[in-house]
TrEMBL record, chain A:
PANTHER family noted in UniProt: ACYL-COA DEHYDROGENASE (PTHR43884), ACYL-COA DEHYDROGENASE FADE28 (PTHR43884:SF20)
Record has ATP-binding as a keyword: no
Record has RNA-binding as a keyword: no
Keywords: FAD, Flavoprotein, Oxidoreductase
Record Pfam families: Acyl-CoA_dh_1, Acyl-CoA_dh_N
Gene3D superfamilies per the UniProt record, alphabetical: Acyl-CoA dehydrogenase/oxidase, N-terminal domain, Butyryl-CoA Dehydrogenase, subunit A, domain 3
Span of domain Acyl-CoA dehydrogenase/oxidase C-terminal: 214-335
Protein name as catalogued: Acyl-CoA dehydrogenase
Cofactor: FAD
UniProtKB/TrEMBL annotation, chain B:
InterPro entries in the cross-refs: Acyl-CoA_Oxase/DH_mid-dom (IPR006091), Acyl-CoA_Oxase/DH_mid-dom_sf (IPR046373), AcylCo_DH-like_C (IPR036250), AcylCo_DH/oxidase_C (IPR009075), AcylCoA_DH/ox_N (IPR013786), AcylCoA_DH/ox_N_sf (IPR037069), AcylCoA_DH/oxidase_NM_dom_sf (IPR009100), Mycobact_Acyl-CoA_DH (IPR052161)
Domain Acyl-CoA oxidase/dehydrogenase middle: 122-215
UniProt name for this protein: Acyl-CoA dehydrogenase
The Acyl-CoA dehydrogenase/oxidase C-terminal domain, residue ranges: 227-359
Acyl-CoA dehydrogenase/oxidase N-terminal domain: residues covered: 10-118
């Protein structure tokens, strides 16, 4: 980590330590703390070059911030806006970048509808993704339904990809907040019926890899914190006259979890291309689910309560595992990529 | 092993299947006030056909059914999609304790309203500082004229938010950890009782804390001898950990639903896990039928507890991976399965029991 990256991470961690309140955030109508989001944008966590009004942060810096947001489970549009910004940059459309990126850098929420599991860009002029049904013309009339779109109902800027091109869409769109079990993640269903889309440029499958890597960073942060909380608890919970963390059966399990979190972090950091991003998505999804499940078991009864945060980590773990394609989907892709 | 059923059992099976087919309907969650009463009504309906406690003597509302017939009943019950049993803590945990350690007077007084759904019971064992280390519990019962006064705090008490009565362990003397505990029953609506519902991870008050402030319990509500509560409690623990609370029928039915789910959403990457879960349910079923003559009790119940709780988790996780999202039909079962390796003695404690008391490994 460079000194600048370390400073950024510390700034985000300190901000979240002071101002993040996940319970309060999920009770708000939009499900996130707008003031906190504005402060994050001020720190410059979005991957937007300076010439487009950004801080000049890259994806690596955004990943650091996401790792911190993952630790505290803070609901935030960062993942959504960051991916949308990267899709815009990849489209090479100077006019759109000049017009939209400064707004995103300033905190305007951006959302992207994209084909999660398309391994490569196809020339088919349809939205050929299972999430997007009844897709038709790819040109400028967009049809289809997309589920589990990050911040899709709140976004000021809505981008849509059919896996070939990137479009900007602003009308004829039905957006509906569709809550899932993970209340800390805002997801929406978007219906496009003959929506007029402005073709901005080509879609780059590199955006998928960036999204997977960014999500993996967030998963690692959450998994690391879930383990820390568990270790802290087992040091203070006394049964049979000693802290339960002193029992070898529990020690070994937490030691194994530590190995898992460390290797997951390595996988997330190394996620820079198609294969390594898919590896990170699979590995970090499974690692976080494992740590969250163990967090519940090692806490015992208290973890079954609504008051305790263990279920928030657990639900985030399982929601994140499904986001942008399940581990099984990406294993399938990897099998083909490795065989090729 | 001969799994052919005799004529009487086949007839019983047909009757149960037909009755359930005609009466099962979806109910609201039993962890809500309204849903709890719906479940109580369901218990009354079952009892009206003597189907709520088939293995009990007829005098208490049962049919004197054999253990085999009870297993068959459970299979039919779960296969039909019938509601969860709001009276399970009473009929599966307290009742076996009363059969083993209670008096005739207690059985005659307590079992019929339990069988009929008129008295729903909660278990009051754990305390904030006494979970896995149950014997360190601090709630006390102090002698008074004609009975005992209960003081202290119990927690993680399933159903207690809406139940009528509770049973639990209390310290009646300071000598020793295990000695000096006594098994008592008390009324959750008695003077001095405060019940504070606890919302579970699904947001509903599936369990509660119970605060006891000089709650009077008459002598007739002590089970077994004063000071002998630990031994009495461990006989109930065997029932909770063993097959009575979690009969194979439940898992066989869930595994069947999982296979159906796979047929609709085939995913070769998950095929092995679907089949493993199905095999696990079948293995548990066969293990249970095989041990009918000598049902798991004591330390042996720890073996089944580890097995069914981990099977339940694997089964639900596989279903979720097949679905890719949390479908309503699987959501509650999945969240509930998370608690399985924790309640009735954590699986860590069960493994200690297996290691020390079955394998004879040093403490």
């Amino acid at each position: 980590m460079t000194p600048e990256q370390l400073a950024l991470r510390d700034a985000v961690r300190s901000l979240l330590g002071k101002h993040s309140d996940v319970r309060a955030a999920i009770e708000t109508p939009d499900g996130y703390d707008e003031d906190l989001w504005a402060r994050l944008c001020d720190i410059g966590v979005l991957p937007i070059p300076e010439r487009y009004g950004g801080s000049g942060a890259g994806i690596a810096e955004t990943a650091l911030a996401l790792e911190e947001l993952g630790r505290t489970l803070t609901p935030s549009p960062l993942l959504s806006s960051a991916i949308a910004a990267q899709a815009l940059l990849a489209s090479g459309n100077e006019e759109a970048c000049t017009r939209l990126l400064p707004r995103i850098a300033n905190g305007a929420v951006a959302a992207l509808v994209w084909p999660w599991d398309t391994a490569e860009v196809t020339a088919t002029p349809v939205l050929d993704h299972p999430e997007i049904t009844t897709a038709a013309a790819a040109s400028e009339s967009l049809d289809g339904t997309a589920r589990h779109v990050l911040y899709g109902d709140l976004a000021e800027i809505l981008l849509v990809s059919d896996g070939v091109s990137l479009f900007e869409v602003d009308d004829d769109v039905t957006r509906e907040h569709t809550p899932t079990m993970d209340q800390t993640r805002r997801l929406a269903t978007i219906q496009l019926s003959g929506a007029s889309g402005t073709r901005l440029g080509p879609w780059s499958s590199g955006v998928r890899d960036i999204a997977l890597a960014a999500l993996a960073a967030e998963q690692v942060g959450a998994a690391a914190r879930a383990l820390e909380l568990t270790v802290e608890y087992t040091k203070t919970r006394v049964q049979f006259g000693r802290p339960i963390g002193s029992f070898q059966a529990l020690k070994h399990r937490m030691a194994d979890l530590h190995v898992l979190v460390e290797t997951a972090q390595s996988a997330a950091l190394a996620a820079t291309d198609e294969v390594s991003a898919a590896v990170a998505k699979v590995y970090c999804s499974e690692a976080f689910c494992k740590v969250a499940a163990e967090m519940i078991q090692l806490h015992g009864g208290i973890a079954i309560t609504w008051e305790h945060d263990a279920h928030l980590y657990f639900k985030r773990a399982h929601g994140s595992a499904q986001l942008f394609g399940s581990p099984a989907d990406h294993l399938d892709r990897l099998a083909k990529l490795v065989r090729a | 092993m001969d799994l052919d059923l005799d004529a009487a059992t086949l007839e019983f099976q047909a009757e149960v299947r037909s009755w359930l087919a005609g009466h099962v309907r979806p109910l609201s969650s039993m962890d809500t006030a309204a849903g709890f009463e719906e479940h109580r009504s369901w218990e009354r309906l079952l009892a009206s056909e003597r189907l709520s406690v088939v293995s009990w003597p007829e005098a208490f509302g049962g049919r004197n059914a054999s253990l085999l017939q009870w297993l068959i009943f459970e299979e039919e019950y779960h296969a039909s999609g019938a509601p969860g049993r709001v009276s399970q803590n009473g009929i599966f945990l307290l009742a076996p304790t009363l059969f083993a350690h209670g008096t005739d007077e207690q059985r005659a007084r307590i079992l019929p309203p339990m069988a009929g759904g008129d008295e729903v019971w909660a278990q009051a064992w754990s305390e904030p500082e006494a979970g896995s280390d149950l014997a360190s519990l601090r709630s006390t019962a102090v002698r008074c004229e004609g009975g005992w006064l209960l003081r202290g705090q119990k927690t993680w008490s399933s159903r207690a938010a809406f139940a009528d009565r509770a049973f639990g362990l209390f310290r009646t003397s300071a000598e020793g950890r295990h000695r000096g505990l006594t098994y008592l029953m008390f009324d959750l609506r008695a003077d001095g009782v405060t019940v504070r519902p606890i919302n579970q991870l699904d947001g509903e008050p599936g369990f509660a804390e119970i605060f006891l402030d000089d709650v009077f319990v008459p002598d007739r509500d002590v089970i077994g001898a004063v000071g002998d509560g630990w031994r009495v409690a461990m006989s109930t623990a065997g029932n909770e950990r063993g097959l009575s609370l979690r009969s194979p029928g439940r898992f066989v039915a869930a595994a069947g639903r999982l296979v159906e789910l796979y047929r609709k959403n085939p995913d070769p990457a998950l095929r092995d896990r679907v089949v493993d879960a199905w095999i696990g349910a079948q293995a548990y079923r066969l293990h249970t039928f095989g041990s009918l003559a000598n049902p798991p009790a004591g330390p042996a119940a720890s073996v089944t507890k580890v097995f069914w709780s981990e099977l339940d988790l694997a089964l639900h996780e596989t279903a979720l991976d097949l679905l890719g999202e949390v479908a309503p039909g699987w959501r509650d079962g999945w969240l509930f399965s998370l608690a399985g390796p924790i309640y009735a003695g954590t699986n860590e404690i069960q493994r200690n029991v297996i290691a020390e008391r079955i394998l004879g490994l040093p403490r």
